[in-house]
Structure formats: C-alpha cells, structure tokens
Design brief:
The chain has 482 residues and is an alpha+beta fold. Helix content is 32%, strand content 24%. It has 2 domains: 246 residues, Aminohydrolase, N-terminal nucleophile (Ntn) domain (Glutamine Phosphoribosylpyrophosphate, subunit 1, domain 1), CATH 3.60.20; 212 residues, 3-Layer(aba) Sandwich (Rossmann fold), CATH 3.40.50.2020. The model has no long low-confidence stretch (mean pLDDT 92).
Length: 482
C-alpha cells in the first residue's frame, strides 16, 4: 500500500505536498519522496524513512515550484532500497515523473516487452518503473511536439490495455501538466480536491485519500472514476476522460477495515461510518457465540479497531475500556517491511493497563486477524495483566488468500485462516472464545452506505480475483513473500 498526491496551484507547493504526505503517512512508512517543477526544471527528493525524516529546511528552500507530486511507500513489489523510492523519472518524452499506488500482476511480461519491443531498459524490478516506461512509450508513440490532453488520454488508454492489476497514478509531464489516472475497477482510492486561489482561479489536489485535503484547506470535489484519467494544465485547466472499457466500481474492502484513515470518504462511503456498521453487525454475532456472562469489559485494540469496538460495547451494554497504551512513536506494525520487525514492535507498541484487566472477563475487538502472531502476543499480555478470561472478536472475516493489488499480506502459508480451522486458531491464540465477522456483513457495511457501488474487491477473503491472475504469478508471489 502506498499514498500518492499531486498538486497544481498558484503558489509554491512544497509545504502543501509535505502536509499532504504527513496525512497519508499511514499508507506507507518505508520511504517518502516528492518531485516539484518550476519553469521546466524538475527538483526531487526521495529517501528511505518517514516524511518528517526525509525532508528538512534545506529541501523546503531547494524544492520550488507551483506543481508537484509526492509519494509514501510501503513495499509490495520490488526491493526495499532507496532506488525503489518514488517518484520515478524518465527523460523521454518531455520528462515524466510518476508516483504509483497499486500492483501490476503482469510485470515480468511487460518488462520483456519493454526490452525487446519498446527498446527501453528497466534498472530495477519495480512494477512502478515498468508502468512509468509503458506510459512514456505510449506517449512517445504519438510523436507530437505540442501534445494535447487527448494525446495523454490516448496513451493512458493504451497503458490500461497492456497493464493488469491495480493502477493509481499521479504524474508530471514537464512543461505541460499533471496527469492522474485510476484503474478500471477502482480498487485503490483516488480523489480530487480544490480551493479558490488569490487570483479567483482554482488550485487542484489529487490524493489517495480525502483526509489529505483538510491540511491545506482544499475541499473534496469528487472521487476519480474507475478507468478515468485527469489532466490538469499548469494554467489550472482541468480535463478528464474515461480511458478504459467496461469500467466498474469495486473499491478494496480492506481499505474500510484497516488501511484508510477514519476521517476519509472513499467512493461515497465514510470509512468511519463503515467501521461503525461493522461493529454493530459484529456485536449481533457476538451475542450468539459468546455467553453474556463471559464478558465484563470490551477493549478495542488501538487504533483502527476503536470505532468498531466502541459500537460493540454499546450494543452489548458492556463497559468500554481503553486498556492498552499505544506508543505513538512506533508505526503501524502491519505495514512494516519485515515480519521480524512486526513481532518486535508489538511489544514496544502496546502496553496493558493492569487495572483494566485484573480479575475481569475481557473481550478484545480487533479490525482483523491476518498472521495471528500479533494477537497471540496481545492475548498473552491480557492474561499476564490478570484477566480471568479473554475472548477475541475480529471486525473482519477470515483472511485466507494473498493480496495482489497493493497489500503485502504475507505468503498464503502465513495467513493463519488459510490452513487452520476456527477452533485451531482459537487454540493458537490461547483465547477462550473467538468470533469472526461474516463476509456478507462486512460487504453490507460498505455497500449499504453507497448502493451505487458495483461491488467491493474482497479477494483476500473469498479468493475471487477480479483481474486475470495466473497460477504462475501466485506461485512466484508466494516465493517472494515467503
């Protein structure tokens, strides 16, 4: 998972890009970068680390210009060194800088095509570099000295035909404008915001999540449609076109469960309201599966479970306690690049408040259980703090299948629900009761908030991939993630 943002405005955009990346930091902790353009000159800074570590006063003074793009990286494809940080750049045609959120599932085939047919060299195994070169090649094929928005839209249309997977992009076409596009299934989120500038014109921002707009006084306008490309000239003129056939809206279900910030609205669905509904439906399931006398207090695991956990407590008419102190200086363990880091960070990240556990029957509510190793440690913490009984409820259904659309969700063999029954998982976790949300209730928690959604992307739960995913690709992914 990554976060991307693009800005075209009348004033210098470094501060607004920086603030937006801070708001998107939850989508990637591995690396950060931005590219800004002034008078046809691109200036870039990218490195491993958090946004506040990558940029300082020196970069504020050096990176000047009124349009630019930014990226926070969470590695799902390619390596984990500085070379994989984004935005990435090619000098032909025009000079293109690109930031990508998603995953291509036919990277190997495209890399071969680029070398043998398009005569382009790829220096890393990053799918984002492949995507950048595909787009650049398709633009250069048009061979126009003065390209129009339709030139870029035609190139995006050809790019969609060649690339499979999830593709969310913001890019700078030097001296011409900002080009952004979203794949035809709308798996990853992308939205447009605007504000009135000092000249009574409009500034524009395109961001992975709408939460980024508030930091710079932008107002949410709308979501980018599936298969849509947006071109914004440096004079502030905006153009758009649907560039993919058979486009349907299928946002990723796990965005609403875990990844997105609760103050974001994705495709007409408030993430906060979706999590509240998940909590309501989970509470009804808990009533049938856990005896009432086995719950004294409901304790959500901070932070993405607090919204649903609060609803669970209210509906069950039980005390709600925030029994864990979270170390805010430890990042999201789920998106850390190595499993060993995740295991070590759980002990540093959460610390129980003994008074909330001692001699109590505790119900833990978490957003999901993926590998199970984190929850196993948390359950052990609860007993050590004096809990009499510990039950676990997951606001998400069982995660059984690998994600191929931008989430590094471990090898299938490491997904605990892919190889264990519910009773075996309960025994592994060491808890007294275990409840999973039903997949149907999860889906309804999102769709009932926006009936215009065609569906949601839920392959990690049911194994049904909406794009062409070969067995060979899944086997290779298993090796890499293993």
């Amino acid at each position: 998972m990554c976060g991307i943002v693009g800005i075209v405005q009348k004033d210098n955009c470094f501060t607004d890009l920086y603030d937006s990346l801070i708001m998107l930091q939850h989508r990637g902790q591995d690396a950060a970068g931005m590219t800004i353009c002034e008078n046809g000159k691109l200036s870039s800074r990218k490195a491993k680390g958090l946004v506040k570590e990558v940029f300082n006063q020196q970069h504020f003074e050096r990176l000047k210009g009124n349009y630019g793009i930014g990226h926070v990286r969470y590695p799902t494809a390619g390596g984990n060194s500085k070379e994989y940080a984004q935005p990435m750049y090619v000098n032909s045609p025009y000079g293109i800088s690109l930031a990508h959120n998603g995953n291509l599932s036919n990277t190997k085939e495209l890399a071969d095509e680029l070398f043998h047919s398009d005569l382009r060299h790829i220096s890393t195994d990053s799918d984002s570099e492949v995507l950048l070169n595909i787009l650049a090649h398709e633009i250069s094929k048009r061979g126009e000295n003065e390209p129009s928005p339709d030139t870029f839209f035609d190139a995006v249309e050809s790019t969609f035909k060649r690339c499979e997977g999830s593709i969310n992009v913001v890019s700078i076409i030097t001296d011409y404008g900002l080009l952004a596009f979203r794949d035809k299934l709308g798996i990853r989120p992308l939205s447009i915001g605007s504000r009135t500038n000092a000249n009574s014109g409009k500034d524009y921002m395109i961001s992975s999540e709408s939460c980024a707009f508030a930091s710079s006084s932008y107002e949410f306008e709308r979501d980018v449609k599936p298969g849509e490309a947006i071109f914004i000239s440096f004079d502030g003129e905006i153009y758009s076109r649907i560039c993919a056939e058979d486009a349907t809206l299928n946002p990723c279900l796990f965005e609403y469960v875990y990844f997105a910030r609760p103050d974001s609205v994705i495709d007409g669905v408030s993430v906060y309201q979706a999590r509240q509904l998940m909590g309501e439906k989970l509470a009804e399931k808990i009533k049938h599966e856990i005896p009432d006398e086995d719950i004294d207090v409901v304790i959500p695991i901070p932070e993405s479970s607090i919204t649903s956990g609060t609803k669970v407590a209210r509906i069950l008419n039980k005390d709600l306690a925030y029994g864990f102190v979270k170390n805010r200086y430890v990042g999201r363990t789920f998106i850390m690049p190595e499993q060993t880091l995740r295991k070590e960070s759980v002990r540093r990240k959460l610390n129980p408040i003994s008074d909330e556990f001692k001699n109590k029957k505790v119900l833990l509510v978490d957003d999901s259980i993926v590998r199970g190793t984190t929850m196993k440690q948390i359950v052990a913490m609860c007993y050590k703090a004096g809990a009499e009984k510990v039950s676990v409820a997951s606001a998400a259904s069982e995660v059984k299948y690998p994600n191929v659309y931008g989430i590094d969700m471990a090898a299938k063999k490491d997904l605990i629900a892919s190889s264990m029954t519910k009773d075996e998982i309960k025994e592994f976790l060491g808890c007294d009761h275990l409840v999973y949300q039903s997949l149907e209730d999860m889906v309804q928690s999102v769709i009932q908030l926006n009936p215009d959604l065609d569906d949601v992307e839920k392959s990690i739960f049911d194994g049904k991939y909406p794009t062409n995913i070969s067995t060979e690709y899944l086997e290779n992914l298993e090796k890499i993630r293993g």
